[in-house]
């Protein structure tokens, strides 16, 4: 799924859109027809019975008899058709929503490092469009059509009754849903913080179980979660009371409307047959209308979800793309970084503050520094996933801001922070970095990343990721490294390649890496200094600035961060 | 009805009372429909005057009132049930022992004890009352129909069972197919999330745009698979609708013909017309609430599975022994630890003596059993064989809370709780603000805490200020410093994931903390080994070497 070579992109076309509308109309029509059949069934049955009581000729009833049977048969079929068509439309709409969302995220999306939970919620939000159609829009259309039909029928029989019915249906189908909608919005604003509070307490109890047990603080934490639970429960109880009141009001409106219609008909001296038809039609016409109160409540959640999606789509991308990208540079690549300033947020100190760097073909640069010094930000700027506020990055003299970010990443990429394992085979997980790669190239990349033992154990076709074989932190890191080596870009970026490996493996891996990157343009972010004797330049970053730079032997000869780090590493690794 | 839930509902008074009120109100509201039909048919047939509209309105009002009571009681039942389950689940965590929670399981538990239990709402508020109504109202309607008109009653009696029978038949025929398809669906549905999560990686390798095509293909496959499932799944509701509406036709047409012949009274005919659908309605309502309710059943199953799991670290209630005061000797005698579901023992026949005040480093590959050894001393796991003696007393007979009060533990990945920095440091103790500050300074945390926007009152944790791994580790060390009375120090790789400078700070702080205490330190990186008197290497659950450290005088260390 992740590695198939690029195929032609089929953009959605205008006929597709009108076809979608056609499907929606068909679903709505089927839904309305099902409700109308139900209405017709009761109206014709009422007419049949009351008319029969006047004992006319049998022929006078035959139409009604046929109608009763026809309505009875078609109602179920229409309903079945509506449910299928409705779900089909909804799934199509959901797919389109996801596609639009993805297209706004894909190029250089605004989601820098969102938490996994936020991402899942965003994906859940795309389900909302399904509910919008199936649970809100289609029922509302069916309800409105039924109401219109019932009111029209009543108008023929007794205009005053039609007005009463219209009023009752308007209260049940418009006022109550509007009320539940407004209430749901108010409630969700009050429930959200209580939910978040409870979730935090629960997460504390679960994730902090060891800490709590060791420090004897479990009881207190449990009591805190019980308090949070009670606060949430109190709100939920009040909300369910409010919802129940709306439903009860619907029942009341239905019954009183029917009673009022019967009374009006009797005062107007309407005959028995039309009165019965009127009363039973009115009674049944409420059936598709009453559930709209629940739909109104659901609509509040749906609109909130859709609003969140719109906000995500409206967020400006992290990197602005040029309207007409310049042609990508040809030949061996020289990267010139000058006075680069990157600011993640306006109110905080810049993540990078005036960094310069030159990468001529074959040059290897190591970047070291404490966490938060801006090392990964530098790589992100080189890869064009983060924009910079001043300074410049040029590839063979071409400003990267004039190039398409995709073209930049085709040349400058590698092992990034937080690599991801897809729910796909090991082979596909690797080949996304090199869709055209043959078996031998795959095997070589795996060997150089020291992942070969793992591959031998599991085979190439094992499914990784969620629901698949779990991958340890070290294996993930090596998989990501194998991807980077398979990709073999012109400028190879390596962000902490030995992260989460044990000492022995880390040492061996770093030695290998320094070996295979000989003669390749490389930027290596690391906190392990062993082996850096060989690289062409070491840049020490501190708080976004270059604190020191030079070759290893120069840096260890002067006091500073690098020498401190070197000495503490010598101490900790027993390299006396 | 879910068996465990039912038992819970019976034993918990709050749940029982509200559930009873909810079900009773739902059934009464359902039965009032009979009275409503009675009055309406009376008025429409002319048998009753329009004055009967007043009792009709009252009946409607009563139905609304019962509906209100039902909804309110349902809400109370649901919240009470969720609170009880949530509390039991969370209380259960202590009993399960923290060592038993893998990262994945704990994520699931957080979801289950949080929003997961909300899946019970439709079950409790919708499905349960619907089941009760379906059990009572159709019977009552049938009884009334038998009294009113035998022919109709027979038709309804014969067609009514068709609904459950057809439902079961369709369900039985399609269950396997739909189960298989739902599984495939959830996988396809997960694809989009997978792609979105992996976007940075896709972007890095120029695959991001291409995936848009794949997303469309997967969505199309997802949709056609779903529609195949739904075509079958909706069949059962088609049957329900057809039976219900055809029965109405079956009732209405003969009734009309009999009216024509004068053998039936109009009032009875109208009553029959109004009542007959009410016999089917509760069954249909139950059916539509079934699917949403099944998610609740799944959540309940998950919860009860956790609740019925075996207790780890269960202490024999009898014979509570007390560890004598003073820094105790720790002695492991032939200890084997097995985790359920794993073949190899985490620790195999380990014997080890640690003298009071000794500083022991535990070294070895990850997964060798070092953390298990610490968890054993903390009482998070119990030996399957052998025993652990502290101060000469078998740990199995000691109250774990009393014993843990004499320990200070710094886990590999300390958890910071939603709360202030001060509360996080003082965890479980009643330390004064001065003591908290002193502990933070001793743990080399004072400087960065002072630099936080609100110092010690800064709220941290999941939604709080960002702290680096090194800062978190130092706060966890400060916790240990906040327990001056602790006699045994247990540290699980306190410097993993730290850069050299943070590591040096932690090593220095640990050196101070270990003064006058027994210290057992799991060390992945060699920095910590420098602190130890003795290095014990563990491999595959066994001790492979145990040697004293010959300390190099500090003056020579730089050579």
Automatic annotation (TrEMBL), chain A:
GO terms under biological process: cell redox homeostasis; glutathione transmembrane transport
GO MF term (any one): ABC-type transporter activity
Topology of the protein relative to the lipid bilayer: Multi-pass membrane protein
SMART domains for this protein: AAA (SM00382)
GO CC term, one of those recorded: plasma membrane
Source species, domain of life: Bacteria
Alphabetical keyword list: ATP-binding, Cell membrane, Membrane, Nucleotide-binding, Transmembrane, Transmembrane helix, Transport
Residue intervals of the ABC transporter domain: 335-568
Protein name listed in UniProt: Thiol reductant ABC exporter subunit CydC
Stretches that traverse the bilayer: 24-47, 132-157, 163-184, 241-263
Taxonomic source organism: Sphaerisporangium album
InterPro entries in the cross-refs: AAA+_ATPase, ABC1_TM_dom, ABC1_TM_sf, ABC_CydC/D, ABC_transporter-like_ATP-bd, ABC_transporter-like_CS, P-loop_NTPase, Type_1_exporter
Location of the protein in the cell: Cell membrane
Pfam families: ABC_tran (PF00005)
Domain ABC transmembrane type-1: 25-286
Gene that encodes the chain: cydC
UniProtKB/TrEMBL annotation, chain B:
Pfam families named among the record's database cross-references: ABC_membrane (PF00664), ABC_tran (PF00005)
CDD domains per record: ABC_6TM_AarD_CydD (cd18584), ABCC_MRP_Like (cd03228)
Family recorded in the similarity comment: Belongs to the ABC transporter superfamily. Lipid exporter (TC 3.A.1.106) family.
Residue ranges occupied by any ABC transmembrane type-1 domain in the UniProt entry: 20-295
Annotated compartments: Cell membrane
Entry membrane topology: Multi-pass membrane protein
GO CC annotations, alphabetized: plasma membrane
Taxon lineage: Bacteria, Bacillati, Actinomycetota, Actinomycetes, Streptosporangiales
Domain ABC transporter stretches: 330-556
Name of this protein: Thiol reductant ABC exporter subunit CydD
Alphabetical GO biological process terms: cysteine transport
InterPro entries, per the entry: AAA+_ATPase, ABC1_TM_dom, ABC1_TM_sf, ABC_transporter-like_ATP-bd, ABC_transporter-like_CS, ABC_transptr_CydD, P-loop_NTPase, Type_1_exporter
Any one GO MF annotation of this record: ATP binding
Broad class of the protein's primary localization: membrane
Highest taxon listed in the record's lineage: Bacteria
